Model the fold of this input.
Amino acid sequence: MGKSTTLDIVFTAPHPDDLEIGSGGTIASLVKQGYRVGMVHMTNGEPTPYGDPDTRMKEMRAAADVLGAQVCENLGLTNRVLMDGPEPRFALASVLRKYKPRVLVGIAGRTVAASPDHYQAQLITEATRFYSQLTKWNERFDDTEPHPIDHLVYRPIARSAGAGGFGAQFVVDITATIDQKIEAIACYKSQFPGERFRRLEHYVRSLAGYEGGGCGYEYGELFALPRPIGVTDPLALLGKWPVPSIVDRPRF
Amino acid sequence: MGKSTTLDIVFTAPHPDDLEIGSGGTIASLVKQGYRVGMVHMTNGEPTPYGDPDTRMKEMRAAADVLGAQVCENLGLTNRVLMDGPEPRFALASVLRKYKPRVLVGIAGRTVAASPDHYQAQLITEATRFYSQLTKWNERFDDTEPHPIDHLVYRPIARSAGAGGFGAQFVVDITATIDQKIEAIACYKSQFPGERFRRLEHYVRSLAGYEGGGCGYEYGELFALPRPIGVTDPLALLGKWPVPSIVDRPRF
Amino acid sequence: MGKSTTLDIVFTAPHPDDLEIGSGGTIASLVKQGYRVGMVHMTNGEPTPYGDPDTRMKEMRAAADVLGAQVCENLGLTNRVLMDGPEPRFALASVLRKYKPRVLVGIAGRTVAASPDHYQAQLITEATRFYSQLTKWNERFDDTEPHPIDHLVYRPIARSAGAGGFGAQFVVDITATIDQKIEAIACYKSQFPGERFRRLEHYVRSLAGYEGGGCGYEYGELFALPRPIGVTDPLALLGKWPVPSIVDRPRF
Amino acid sequence: MGKSTTLDIVFTAPHPDDLEIGSGGTIASLVKQGYRVGMVHMTNGEPTPYGDPDTRMKEMRAAADVLGAQVCENLGLTNRVLMDGPEPRFALASVLRKYKPRVLVGIAGRTVAASPDHYQAQLITEATRFYSQLTKWNERFDDTEPHPIDHLVYRPIARSAGAGGFGAQFVVDITATIDQKIEAIACYKSQFPGERFRRLEHYVRSLAGYEGGGCGYEYGELFALPRPIGVTDPLALLGKWPVPSIVDRPRF
Amino acid sequence: MGKSTTLDIVFTAPHPDDLEIGSGGTIASLVKQGYRVGMVHMTNGEPTPYGDPDTRMKEMRAAADVLGAQVCENLGLTNRVLMDGPEPRFALASVLRKYKPRVLVGIAGRTVAASPDHYQAQLITEATRFYSQLTKWNERFDDTEPHPIDHLVYRPIARSAGAGGFGAQFVVDITATIDQKIEAIACYKSQFPGERFRRLEHYVRSLAGYEGGGCGYEYGELFALPRPIGVTDPLALLGKWPVPSIVDRPRF
Amino acid sequence: MGKSTTLDIVFTAPHPDDLEIGSGGTIASLVKQGYRVGMVHMTNGEPTPYGDPDTRMKEMRAAADVLGAQVCENLGLTNRVLMDGPEPRFALASVLRKYKPRVLVGIAGRTVAASPDHYQAQLITEATRFYSQLTKWNERFDDTEPHPIDHLVYRPIARSAGAGGFGAQFVVDITATIDQKIEAIACYKSQFPGERFRRLEHYVRSLAGYEGGGCGYEYGELFALPRPIGVTDPLALLGKWPVPSIVDRPRF
Done:
């Protein structure tokens, strides 16, 4: 994996395994289509019951290899106590200014029954899209040049609080890469041993079947945009979406 | 299947196969737990591309047998042109006053890309819960006596418009009856031939995995109540819900 | 204007002038891009204070000519008392089965301070998308063949009740056709005499400036889809949208 | 009570006792302030378990007398089967065109556990505000002249479905008329005998204490507008509202 | 009051008097039913116009005695400047790991016209439910062992911003303990002198009458869960809720 | 411009030019009506591509002069890294306690595609309304006395996330001051050079035309209140709003 190349798109999340579980199918699909994709994990996700930092970093890199991401970085922020503020914004923006992606993907939603890091990561990601383009501040960002990012995309966490009010949602067909996604998650053996992996795989496949089903795909991943999509040719927008015939629809 | 007994709960929907797809796992589970369950289809669901009225009625009864429902009735209203109004309300309420269930379950949501019957069925069901208890109107209801129904429960159609703003939602664990649910759907051979059944089974299992996953179940079905739940002992309410340990949670 | 050709897209609304005010810029833009576009008005919109049926029909056709729509039809339903039900659904679906568009565009929203026809038109349009594909019912639709429509698109009425909960929204750039839109509205001289037209033009331009501004366009029209957009290549979806540089953004 | 005078404001609801329970305090307060107020009940509300049409009409008039309403009319539509459509709209609009109020108040919300008449009454009321101003249709409205109504105001039913998305809400201080409101409700002896009245009074006082409490009033009634309020002097708008000092606030 | 025993449930809020006003009836009811209940106040709530720290602490303990809570603790965080972050999370989680409750109850909502502490307390409480179960971090939590908490429950602040989108809501019947709740609030003489207490009691009784009324109780307190409730037997869930007969319903 | 006088209303926002773009028409209108108005900018808004601190301060004062604001202050907090917390709250509250306004206006909404300062400013403003009235803390506020502010008003940022759930919205007619507003924005030559100003003016006029149009004004600015408006005379509330006749309405 190279490190200083320009990327088309960067996915970010707080803990190694968040990206694979949330967006692994889309990452793999984009790589297959020839795009250059980066994965940026904010923390090492440790400590956890059965993990340790070295193992987790190895698992992270193995998962990125399975998905084919050209770049996989870790910001080294502290797990469990991630808080939005200038420093984590500088850290993430420096990476974005280095790789100059057109699109930044972050998670959305307050997982009130799980880690508070998720919502803080959303706030950090939103701010960082703005920071990436700021002028006269290069010293805050490892002397990188300003880089405006075209689009901020959310990966909403299913059933989380505060994920909503989006301008547009879209579902990426991951039927061809669902197995690759499961394989990438399986790299995190320290996190999902035995029966736990079986349960997670069942849930991840179910969620992908549900999210994809809304657009006629066998498996899909749902994303959201803060604003409506802008188009000149709306029929081209709709035409690219292979609507299933009535015979194939789940309900009618 | 007897016809004049008292029931604990009645499920209703416009077309034969709606109830099996939406609530089949819960119907089967309730029957197993010893409750008396009724299924009331509003129309015969025909015409459809490959079905005909006789075949559809046979499929409907076969599906009810698979689920074990004690009562399965069809109101004989007209498919495709179901409209809320006094007559369909009288028809449904007459059945409710005959079987005297404590709970009535209807579908919720405007399926803007599918049949308009679904939303009209929701309006009819809401009105009928009220009609069931009305006095001095027995002649409108086949001379049945007034019967107040304790609870109106919704089965929200996934991703439909207008399903929301509920007072409470709950998920029924259908892990033990998911196969029975699939078997009941399979009775509708005229509706889901070959590949179409394979796709539907995949979607139905995915949705059940997604809805169940929110409460730690392998498979579940989501329902909703128009008002908050009333309790004297909230710890008993929560205590009955076997929260998965951290090892079993999909995400943490 | 021919009458029996196949169309790419059909726009429908209850009263002549609704389509021009709501979607005129998009209709003109699609025609310019080579698509075949139909306009279907449900009623003649009369009586009104200064109009009469003959004049209104002439204005309707003149406006369609200004926009370049290949087909302009009027269902002849009764203004002011439009109610969702089988008959208006048959009337609209018959036209759709004749012209076989891939996309159907209807208005969305309950204009509680204006005509109740708008919300009824939404319900009729939603149902009609389903009716268009129904088999074994050709006699209800002037002996036309079933035609499945790929997409139902909404044109949400600004500030109306009940318009929301959409799966995705998009804005069509109408900068190049805003003047054509205003010209089409101006055809309705019986509806917008003198000062009234001046005020309406000001409001229509303001709304288009506001809706377009959200996507960096000088003028735009906002549309919505009931479901998320399905994509294989999300970067292509986003890449087609010319995000303005920071210098051109209204706020930063 | 005169019958052909002009009114300032008209309140409407489907069943005699709805208006008193929902808006009785505001009606009494407006009368005290010198406004001319009308109450228009759509049906006679019968049959009910302990009522009959003659008794209910007497109770209705007694309640209007307690509140001091200048006009109290009943449209004579049929209880329990109220459905939105041209005829009930003509009936209500004819009364509005006769009394020419500036403001029309209707209920809002789908009481899914109670009468379906409530939601149909909302749809009828919304449509009627539009019908009231229509020209060239006098014969549909008892030969009355068109009358534009300045404002449609909602009285949202607490906890009902579908009441929301308003442009503005306001609370009327009814501290001085809460007893009059209770007295008006007490006129409906056929509906609220003994213990039932005690429970209703408790609930009505609680709701008024809750709704008033949001604005620092001892008792209040909440209303809503479909659009934002238009003002030239926003400080005058806010200045008329006697905000309680910190010592009087329920929470701080 | 003992201090090191295991508890069934812990209620937490930022200022002494928040818990009594919000959840006092439920706390007293749970104690009566034999549960072990803890109250954890985050700050001493001072300074205020008429209070001082010593008096407020005495009032806090007197109120806990009135309600019968087995444990009453104060985290000693600073009033008026409460901010979510690692330190307050460690403080609250240490108490939870000591008492090992199955359920944690926190407030929900941004009181934009009152103290910013309320929303920060919500964020702290959400994070702490997660912190309570964390392994390999005992030194951050006074050397306590990890303790997974089954349920996070919210007490939504009436009319506050941001309280919504819950998975389920329930109302606890506090008819038998409303007087005890009022008595507990009355312990805070420094906060609610004379007329101010009279107004607060009126508002608190009104809110309890309103919230209870939605489920047929004379007085109730509303709570919410982030996720739907999981059940095996939905009829048992509904059966425990004594729905009032039609004669007792406030409206029908 | 004097500096120690009492003010009627204070508007606050993070960057010089935010207030002019968002509320310039209302500020100018209030001054014309004889009110004393203050503008409080939290930061100097620099660095930006073409600005510098001295220039920006001069532009800020020039803009305040154009609008006629009696007071224009800058808190000197740091642009781009504004974070809610005690210190910025103290800074803003000290100014409020000095000028003692009855009303405080802040921005609302998370501009996820722009500066994170906007949402932090909302949190700071909400907290500050509470801080302004706090007793026994004068030393934190430059030895100023407590001052309770009657109303917190929001200026929602169009299309921003999280702006919603308001108790009431109102639109101020700025038809008479729209040119003054544009002139004030034009003072910020460093921010909006050439073509950029032309585009901004187009968008600002469009937004004002859209927001005003909802209440029948040629140009307006939309504001929101966290709670419903309290009134004694609702007809006076509605009567002050000059509803346009049917001839002037954009749609009917």
Summary: Helices of chain F lie at 18-32, 53-67, 86-99, 117-131, 178-186, 195-213, 234-239.
